[in-house]
Amino acid sequence: MAVPVQRGPQSGEETDAQAPAVVRSLLLVDCGSVHTKVALLARIDGQMRLLARAQSPTTLLPPIEDLRVGVYEAIATIERITGRALLREGQIITPEQPDATGVDTVALTANAGGPLRILATGPGREALTGLLHRAIGGLFAQVEPLPTIRTHPAPSAAEWQQALAQARAFQPHALLIVGPPFSEGKTPSMDETATQMGTWLDGLAGAAAARPSARNTLPVVFTGSPSDAETLTLTLRDRTFVHEVAGLSPSTLAPLNRAVSALYETVVLRSLPSFAVLRQAAATPPIAPITALAGMMRYLAQRFRTNVLGVDIGASSTTLMGATANGDFLPAVHPLAGVGPGLGAILRERGAASVLRWLSFQAAENELREYALMRMLRRTALPATARELEFEHAFAREVLALAMRAPGSRLPGLHPLDVILGSGGVLANAPHPAMAALILLDALQPVGITSMVLDSAQLAGALGGVAALDPAAAGEVAALDAVVPQLATVISLTGEIQVGQPAVRVSLEDTSGSRTVAEVMGGTLAYLPLAPGAQATLGLYPVTGVDAGLGPGQHAQASEAVEGGTLGVIVDARGRPLRLPDDDEERQRGLRAWRQALGLDG
Amino acid sequence: MTVLNVEYPQGRPFLPARQGHYLRPLPPGMVARVSEGDHVSSAQIIAERAVGAEAAPPSGAGERAGILAGVSGRVVEVVAQRHIAIKGVVAVFQGAIGLGGQSAGPLALLPRGELPAVVPIPAGCVIVFPGQLSLTFMQRAVANGALGVIAGSASAREFEAFARTDLSAVLDELTSPPQLLAMTIVLTEGLGDYPMRPALFQMLAQRVNTPVLLDGTTLPRRNRHPEIIFPLPPGAPPEAVPVDSGLAPGVMVGVAAGDRRGMSGVIVHLFTRPQTTAAGFRVPSASVRLDDGSTVVLPLHVLDRIG
User: 20 to 30 A from B86, CA-CA: which of A392, A398, A598, B187?
Assistant: First the structure.
């Protein structure tokens, strides 16, 4: 299965390092907003395996404004762990040498520079919003509408300045003009749009001049008919370059995706200090981890003919990437909210009360705000106490809810959810796997039978970058090293669940004939031990009106054996949607009971 | 259990001798009284209100009559209505969070034993307040003409109420920092209820009546933190840069997070294997002898090298 390579027309300006036909070894380098992660992969007995990984702080801010420092520090750690020389005279050794030093190639992902900020406008924008989100949903881009300003009569100076200030505050990297896909000739609206864009570009160039870090002219991407593109290009030819791409339609989403992806590299990534040096060693165009995760999810969905959801809770951004067996792709991204410096966005958009409701103890809003603000101030911090850890995990639940409802998200319609892959530090580094499982269950609320896996090596995103180079190698590392062992098989009930009353009887019969039977009460979570790698036949006997994924009250014996995991089999009989009691004491008692059911607080 | 392989920290909040260019903003109506090439002392007035100029609105510094140099050194640039740049060597302590722009003035301690709600507040000074700052005290300090406050901590709610802003939006640079505050505040330990670390309080107490320069600017996305800038005598040698921020046995550290935030001590031992923290993470850790005599195991990510 070929994984889509996110490569734009501009990326050819730099030549990719040549990778050998068969990659023997490679370095994955992922420059995150807070941490830089590096992993060494190499072929062992014909299979690509993870040899070592390391991370160090991303060095993008004063006093060390050089991306290489963090990357090389992490590589040096890998050198110490493996005894394999990877650096020589400040360069990554490529290709792999006969004495087994160096690596054949490097796969680079980065979101350290933040998202590509795009102001979108145009006569077709409102009608094509859904397609627009589908086209660029898998990219690390933040799209805001260009402020609306009337044309007849002309706006007053004050109105114009206000709109301009609003646009400047967004600090855009590019303008996206969405025209109707099939218009013929020069429509009056495109003439007007082109003239307006000229005014906007002049105004925003003035703002850029006042900010030394900004560019003086914004690039423009236009999607629409060729005749409209010509109108626009003629009007703006003295101001900027117009990237023309085919008009948006369900079958022509890829050109805009490629154009925006290319802009991300040329505008955001290349502005990162020393990025060009790292770029030279890479065999494929660098991409954002979320784009890489998108590629990985599509690959897994196709390879295993299943519906998968990749979840990456980062420090500054959060990504959900759904992919279905029949080729649908359902991305949902919040580029500015994460569990780290991105906590502020969660506080502002979800409110402290939403976060506090997930705590199993009483805490004041002020204490939560203090934690969040201090966490924003100290980028590389980790929770220092158990109380802070629960704050962090409460924020993680809410940031997933935020991302689920991101503009254009179609994720709530992803059903059945066969596999959930959890990634990102807050999940991968959770002191107990049950904490990660609870975060995913509470926030995503799957129904039916779902396999839950954890990207404990934090490689899933970066492996998407490898998939562009060697899909089989990416699949091998994912299956053998990155996401093993499985976290749990989860059975989530819906329907008429009565709290405190039996909801389902579950039987597990392992290969030796040993049988475990549990009756699970409504409103509870239950845990049935089944070791990682072990298989058992699952029997589900829900009471009337309760659905275990097969229809209300339908009994079932699994036709295929279910696999165990670190947390065995989890039965979630809390119902959907999950409702938390309003009463503080009752809610906290419930949260504690659910934690205890999965082996926490014991 | 997961083992995190993370090297901390990147920085060092106390620098005994940092050389740099220090920009002293000129509020509207202020004119420079120095020229490029002049040598200035920290207590010297470098700008005053122009004759006939109306009182300008507060500009982050409450220095209404004249602007002190704040640092000793040589004037390297004077830009009318913009700033005066002074090149000098200073000692710098980075606080956790601040409000306001720059202020320079003599340090002042408050009389012991008096309630913050009634204690007399001297005008034209930078007040040292070692405990948790209250909204009432912040408001009284402004009303009484204090130039700045250096405090251990403040509640987020009261700090935001005083600044009349959502600090999360300020830290994310979605809104401008409240530069129009008539006073600069630097919290050395951050938000919450934490006392100022004793070593820092003693250092400040020893410098009562000598001028310091406060800068409340806090922009974590640019790794910019509020600063307390102590002038050093002219000719003081600067430290070599980059300053060693490594953690090793024998170095002094401050605790920046967790239950012991605000305490300081000396590293006794660095563990070769990760240790489990109170939150359950297995991370690189050190055994630290704290100033109160206790010896505890702390994760490296909560430690800042301060000496």
Answer: B187
Identify from B1, B2, B244 which residue to disrupt to test chain A contact, counting A C-beta atoms within 10 A and taking the largest count.
Answer: B2
Contact A381 B259 (CB under 8 A): no
Burial class (CB in 10 A: 0-12, 13-18, 19+), B97: buried
Q: Is A104 left (phi over 0), alpha (psi -120 to 50) or beta?
A: alpha
Sign, CA torsion A187/A189/A192/A198: negative
Q: Give me the pLDDT at residue B180, please.
A: 59
The interface predicted TM-score (ipTM) is: 0.92
Question: Residue A119 contacts by C-beta under 8 Å, 6 or more apart in sequence?
Answer: A143, A144, A145, A146, A167, A170, A172, A174, A175, A176
What residues contact A143, with CB distance under 8 A and at least 6 apart? A118, A119, A120, A132, A133, A136, A176, A407
Ranges of chain A whose pLDDT falls below 70: 1-20, 181-188, 206-216, 484, 557-560, 602
B-chain CB neighbours of A366 within 8 Å are: 155-157
Task: State both tokens at A461.
Answer: 């995103």
> Does A80 lie at the interface with B, CB-CB under 8 angstroms?
no
pLDDT of residue A280: 87
Pick A56's closest partner by Cβ from B6, B156, B301: B6
- Enter the DSSP assignment of B302: G
| pTM for the whole structure | 0.91
Taking the CB of residue B5, how many other CB atoms lie within 10 A of it? Answer: 17
Q: What is the pLDDT of residue A192?
A: 82
What torsion, rounded to 10 degrees, do the Cα atoms A27, A31, A34, A39 define?
-10
Closest CA to A491 of A389, A399, A575, A597: A575
Rg of chain B, C-alpha, whole Å:
20
Structure confidence at residue A401 (pLDDT): 95
A and B: number of Cβ contacts within 8 A: 134
Q: Considering only CB atoms, which chain A residues are within 8 Å of B166?
A: 348
Cβ burial, residue A280 (10 Å; 0-12/13-18/19+): middle
Separation CA B108–CA B91 (nearest Å): 18
Sheet holding A329-334, edge to edge: A329-334, A318-323, A308-313, A419-423, A448-454, A486-492, A569-572, A525-528
Q: What is the pLDDT of residue B35?
A: 95
User: Six-digit token pair at B124?
Assistant: 């034209």
Residue B39 has pLDDT above 80, yes or no: yes
